[in-house]
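Hi everyone, sorry if this is the wrong subforum. Our group has a chain we'd like a structural model of before ordering constructs, and none of us has done structure prediction before. Sequence below.
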Amino acid sequence: MAQIQTLIRSGANPRLTGIFIALAGAFLMSFDAIFIRLSGVGGVDTAFLFGLFTALSLATVIQVADVRGLVGTLRAGGWPVIASGLLMLGSATSLVFSVKLTSVANTFLILTITPTLAAVFSRIFLGEVTRRATWLAIAGVMLGVGIVVSGSVSDPGVDGGARLLGDGLALVAVTFVALNHTLKRGYPEVSRMATIGLGGLFLALAMAAFASPASYSMTTWLTMAVMGLFSAPFGRVLIGVATRHITAPEVGVISMTSAAFAPLLAFLVFSEVPPVASFVGGAVILGTILSYVVVTSRRATG
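Answer:
Right subforum, don't worry. Here is the predicted structure as tokens:
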């Protein structure tokens, strides 16, 4: 761990630095589904609490740690901060309802389409050419996602329709996430905490009219506080920071390591066993990501 911290501080290998930052962010974000399930409330209330605590957490950190203060940081960010916050609103809302309707494994594995869309958006909006190794990794990830989704289509269970809807919402979330990666790549100077914090505020405001906070139990408040104050916002901040060092498609590929942790955590906490297709597709995806990280790390240190 000390060697990793030294590497990140030195800035000697920007690509390797970006990989480690993205990995750390993905690990924190893999806890999202667990907290969403443990919240014990519906999708609207979960989204409201997630947004509320995220906004409070990052606003406090910015006010204390940034010499510009909260208002100054938001003004300096300009329209990209607002656009990124709105994209987060769309992705977070879709993600919450997806987790409520489909399996944790399916939601997080479908999110692996992110690098494909990020590569397309980066080419269109930023003119960045994606490396061949990245495209090969994207192809492997897409194959795995196809296997995962096939499990939902062929599942004869009574929740098959809901699971398909959950998969569809995960695809919507992917689109917003990929656009956000591309936007942040194009504006590296914008505060990542400001974009995530504003996104949380938008989410809380959008859900406030439909939420019922008076009915929440203490367990719900505490569970969502842990998620909204710590793991969820700072995981997303790290993913955003990684776009300063590596391209949006690369961030998307590496961030998909959350697919390795989320189903395992779901099994340990809820004894939720994903469909066989999720295991097979997950193995394809994670094998692809591992190979890509190894190859990229060697190139960065070579």
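For your construct planning: The chain has a mean pLDDT of 83. Residues 56 and 229 are 7 Å apart (CA to CA).
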